[in-house]
Write a structure and sequence with these properties.
With 428 residues, this protein is α/β, with parallel strands linked by helices. It is 37% helix and 28% strand. It has 11 helices and 20 strands. A 6-stranded mixed beta sheet has the order 17-16-13-18-19-20, with helices on both faces. It has a 4-stranded antiparallel beta sheet with strand order 5-4-8-9, with helices on one face. Strands 1-3-6 form a 3-stranded antiparallel beta sheet, with no helix packed on it.
Length: 428
C-alpha cells in the first residue's frame, strides 16, 4: 500500500486529478492507521498467553509444549508468535501464525528434544497482533524467563514400567526368557497375553473366569542390582546429540525400575578418578525418586577413570553378592587391559556385567565403498577399530566377565535382556 501511495504522488506531478486522488488516499490511510492504533492499543493486556508443558522435561525424548493465547479484543486479530527457546537448542526461528477470534483462544503446539540435563531458561513469548490491513502491529511480551529442569528420561522409564506391569516387555524388543523352575516360586494368577508360556495355564482359573488365565512366577529371593556409571572422559562422546553418559543414565534409570518391579533392590554408584555418588540398594518407597535426583546431577569431569578406586569402594560398601552393571567405554584393547585386574577382582565376589559401546558413526562409514586412496585408508582403520571392539568383548568373556557391546540407541533393551537372562538362570 505504501508503494501505491508513492506512485500516486509521483504521477500527481503530471496530473492534478491524480494528485487529488493521492491526497485522499493518504488521508484514508492515516485514518485507518489511527483507527487501528485505537483498537489495538486501547486495552493494556489485550492478549494474554502462557506455555503449557511438563513440570520437567525428559532428556533425549520429544517433550510437548503448547503456547496458549487468549484475546480480550472484540474483533478478530491476526497474530504472529515468536517463541524464544532456551539457548541450549540454538534455534531462533520458531514462529507461528494464526487468526485469534475476539474473546477467543488459540493454541500452537510443538515439541522440544533436549539432549543435556540441567536447567533450561526460556526467553519471552513475542506476540505481534495486527488487523486485516496489517498497517499497524502491536507487540506483546509474555511469560519471559520461565525455567524447566531436564531430568533423565522418565518418559522411557514410564514406557518400560507400563510394559513390565502388563508383562509386555517383548513389545519393546525385550526377549522373553524362559524361567528355570527351581529358581522361581508362585506369585499370582493373571490373564494370558501373547508370549506367555502356555505350560503355565491355570485351567481351573480359566474355567471360572471364562478367559485364558496363567500362573505368574517370581524369583525366590531378592537380589541387589547396582548401576556403576563411569563419569570419565570416555563417556563424553556424543551420538545423535546425546552423550554416552546420558545414554547410560537413561538406561540405569529404567533397569533400576525394572529390577524393583522384579522384587530386587536397586542401587547406584558413579565414579571417575574417585567415587562420586553411592546410593545403597533398596526397594523401599521413594528409592526411584532418590535415583532420579542423583542421576540428574551427574556430569562428566573429563578425567581418567580409576577402576582401583571403584573396586576399593565396592569392597567396603557392598557386602552381599550383587549384580553390578558397569557402564563405561573402551576404544582399544590396551585401555581395557589396564583396568582388567580390578574388573577380575570385582567379578570374583559379584556378578559383573561390563557394558560398552559400538561407534555407530563408524559403522555407517563402513557401508560406503571406498573410491580413492584416502577413503580406502579410512575404511581400513575403521575396520580395525570395529574389530578391536569385538576383541575387547571376547577377551572379557575369556576372563569370565560378562560383557555387552551395544549400539547406544539399543542400550536399554540390551541391558534389560541381560538382566532378565541372569534372573532366569538364577546366576547370583
Amino acid at each position: 500500500m505504501g508503494w501505491l501511495l508513492v506512485l500516486l504522488f509521483v504521477a500527481g506531478w503530471f496530473s492534478p486529478a491524480i494528485f487529488g486522488l493521492a491526497r485522499a488516499a493518504a488521508l484514508l490511510v492515516v485514518g485507518v492507521i489511527v483507527l487501528e492504533l485505537l483498537i489495538l492499543f486501547r486495552t493494556r493486556s489485550a492478549i494474554r498467553g502462557e506455555r503449557h508443558t511438563f513440570g520437567k522435561w525428559s532428556n533425549g525424548d520429544e517433550n510437548p509444549v503448547t503456547i496458549a493465547l487468549r484475546s480480550s479484543y472484540g474483533i478478530r486479530v491476526h497474530v504472529r508468535v515468536l517463541d524464544e527457546l532456551p539457548h541450549q537448542f540454538q534455534r531462533r526461528d520458531l514462529a507461528f501464525e494464526g487468526e485469534l477470534d475476539g474473546g477467543g483462544e488459540l493454541r500452537f503446539p510443538y515439541a522440544v528434544r533436549p539432549v543435556t540435563r540441567g536447567v533450561y531458561s526460556y526467553g519471552a513469548i513475542n506476540v505481534l497482533a495486527s488487523l486485516a490491513t496489517g498497517l499497524v502491529e502491536r507487540r506483546f511480551v509474555l511469560e519471559a524467563g520461565k525455567e524447566v529442569a531436564v531430568y533423565p528420561s522418565f518418559l522411557q522409564l514410564r514406557k518400560y514400567e507400563l510394559l513390565a506391569i502388563s508383562d509386555r516387555l517383548t513389545m519393546a524388543g525385550v526377549k522373553r526368557i524362559r524361567r528355570i523352575a527351581q529358581h522361581v516360586e508362585f506369585d499370582r494368577i493373571k490373564e494370558y497375553v501373547p508370549g506367555d508360556d502356555r505350560r503355565t495355564v491355570n485351567w481351573k482359573a480359566t474355567a471360572r473366569r471364562g478367559r485364558l488365565m496363567v500362573n505368574l512366577y517370581q524369583d525366590e529371593r531378592s537380589q541387589q542390582v547396582f548401576s556403576l556409571i563411569d563419569l570419565g572422559r570416555v563417556m563424553k562422546m556424543p551420538f545423535e546429540g546425546l552423550s554416552l553418559l546420558d545414554y547410560a543414565i537413561n538406561a540405569s534409570l529404567v533397569i533400576s525400575n525394572i529390577a524393583m518391579h522384579k522384587d530386587d533392590k536397586a542401587g547406584l554408584i558413579t565414579f571417575s578418578d574417585k567415587v562420586d555418588t553411592v546410593l545403597r540398594a533398596s526397594r523401599q518407597r521413594g528409592q526411584m525418586e532418590k535415583i532420579l535426583e542423583q542421576l540428574y546431577a551427574q556430569r562428566t569431569d573429563h578425567r581418567e577413570t580409576d577402576m582401583e578406586a571403584l573396586y576399593a569402594n565396592v569392597k567396603t560398601q557392598i557386602s552381599q553378592r550383587s549384580l553390578l552393571l558397569l557402564f563405561t567405554n573402551y576404544e582399544s584393547v590396551n585401555a581395557m587391559r589396564r583396568q582388567l585386574p580390578f574388573l577380575q577382582r570385582l567379578a570374583r565376589t559379584h556378578l559383573l556385567v561390563v557394558i560398552f559401546f559400538q561407534n555407530t558413526e563408524l559403522e555407517d562409514d563402513l557401508k560406503r565403498h571406498p573410491t580413492n586412496t584416502v577413503e580406502l585408508y579410512t575404511h581400513t582403520i575403521t575396520e580395525k577399530h570395529m574389530y578391536e571392539k569385538r576383541l575387547i568383548a571376547k577377551e572379557l568373556e575369556g576372563h569370565g566377565i560378562t560383557s555387552i557391546l551395544t549400539r547406544p540407541q539399543d542400550l536399554t533393551v540390551n541391558v534389560i535382556n541381560k538382566y532378565l537372562a541372569i534372573k532366569a538362570r538364577g546366576s547370583l
